[in-house]
Design brief:
By secondary structure, the protein is an alpha/beta fold. The chain has 9 helices and 6 strands, in the order E-H-H-H-H-H-E-H-E-H-E-H-E-E-H. Helices cover about 40% and strands about 10% of the residues. It has a 6-stranded parallel β-sheet with strand order 3-2-1-4-5-6. Helix 6 links the parallel strand 2 and strand 3. It is globular. It binds 1,6-di-O-phosphono-alpha-D-glucopyranose and magnesium ion. Pfam families: Hydrolase.
């Protein structure tokens, strides 16, 4: 049965994608090109270095690794400035209610995010106290769809993958959950997340009963 829930951060609990987009856009503009919000969709769930590589390709540019590292940390400094202002009201609807319900029912809770800034976001939005384990971009070496981020989470909770459910908004994240042999609940469009066991619009649309029914 259900023993633990693992949450992606961006796109599931908070909407930090808009800040990533603004910061990457600022970087692209400073290099003399632009990219669309549709292209930005491809960056969701992808690590910082991989995102930069994609963006440079869109701009028809290539730089030595050293310069790429500089550009990535420049983007990150702008991004960190934006998320430093985040408050509790930026937590997506249904998040606190679901986390409370899980806690009341002794279901373990972990974070499985690609972001190296996850702790700052959790702290600023009041989410930190809900988490029994935090796995973020500082501790994983392989990006989603590799299952490492979720397998590490289950391991830290001392729970077998078969008792875990993952909440994900990115198809690479759903794939990572399936490769970890966990249940996957997609947050967003059923078309893009068709591999998930269940897809809901947002966390207001899911209750403990429905999660337990996946087992
Ligand atoms: C998030 C975002 C990605 C971002 C990645 C790394 O992942 O969806 O767009 O590139 O983290 O973020 P940072 O530059 O802060 O390390 P997730 O896994 O929480 O959806
Ligand atoms: Mg996400």
């Amino acid at each position: 049965g259900l023993q633990a829930c693992l949450f992606d951060l961006d796109g599931v609990l908070v909407d930090t994608a808009k800040y990533h987009y603004l910061a990457w856009k600022q970087l692209a503009n400073s290099l003399g090109f632009d990219f669309t919000e549709l292209q930005n969709e491809e960056l969701k769930g992808i690590s910082r270095v991989e995102s930069l590589k994609k963006i440079l390709t869109w701009g028809g540019l290539d730089f030595p690794q050293e310069r790429q590292d500089e550009l990535a940390s420049l983007k990150n400094s702008w991004y960190v400035e934006m998320i430093s202002e985040m408050k509790v009201d930026e937590v997506l609807p249904g998040s606190f209610e679901l986390l409370e319900e899980l806690r009341t029912n002794q279901i373990k809770i972990a974070l499985g995010s690609a972001s190296k800034n996850a702790q700052l976001i959790l702290d600023n939005t009041g989410l930190t106290p809900y988490f029994d384990a935090i796995v973020d971009g500082n501790v994983v070496s392989k990006s989603k769809p590799d299952p490492e981020v979720f397998l590490k989470g289950a391991e830290m909770l001392h729970i077998s993958p078969s008792g875990c459910v993952v909440f994900e908004d990115a198809s690479a994240g759903v794939e990572a959950a399936l490769r970890a042999t966990m249940k996957a609940i997609g947050i967003g469009s059923p078309k893009e997340l068709s591999k998930a066991h269940l897809v809901v619009e947002d966390l207001t649309k899911i209750q403990l009963k429905a999660i337990q029914n996946l087992f």
